[in-house]
Amino acid sequence: RFEKLWFGASLVLIVAFLATIVYGAVGPGVAMVDDSGGTVDPSVIADGNYDQVENFREPGVYDTEDGVDVYVVARQYLFQPGSSEPIEVPAGEPVTFHVTSPDVTHGFNLAGTNVNSMVIPGQIAEFTVTFEETGEHGIVCHEYCGSGHHTMEGQVVVV
Ligand code: CUA
């Protein structure tokens, strides 16, 4: 009788285990897909940052008085801009990145620099870099963000 009990208990455990795996693989992908059509829903931006929402609607490079501001949306599984076209920034001027996510937590690691930030949904990660030399820097997502995580990369070109 005890054998049957153990067998039943093992079955329950196995099923629970499989359910966890299936949920882990499918759940976030389905539940957190962003349907805003390429723009960031203002509701995902934390209070106090509404002045930046407009720029995230048109992510890209904006001139400032002494350098540039770069607005990047990190989403499953690309950087906008950065992935489909490189982000072009000037050398020798402060470049301030503003990065947000409409779906899940991503990473923003700029190869060859000390830029290494988490990108948390609804928050804006900000950091300033001055590139002394022209060249190319790969952007890598270093936070696991789903099935396409390993393909999530982009490029910054310093001119
Ligand atoms: Cu985005 Cu990993």
Describe the structure.
- The protein has two domains: 1-31; 42-158, Cupredoxins -  blue copper proteins (Immunoglobulin-like), CATH 2.60.40.420.
- A hairpin with a 5-residue loop joins β6 and β7.
- 22% of the residues lie in helices and 33% in strands.
- By secondary structure, it is α+β, with helices and mostly antiparallel strands.
- The chain is built from two helices and ten strands; from the N terminus they run ααββββββββββ.
- The N and C termini lie far apart (76 Å).
- Strands 1, 2, 3, 5 and 8 form a five-stranded mixed sheet that branches. Strands 4-10-9-6-7 form a five-stranded mixed sheet, with no helix packed on it.
- The site of dinuclear copper ion has 8 residues, from loops.
Question: Can you tag this structure with a few keywords?
Answer:
33% strand; five-stranded mixed β-sheet; alpha+beta; 2 domains; single chain; 159 residues; Immunoglobulin-like; binds dinuclear copper ion
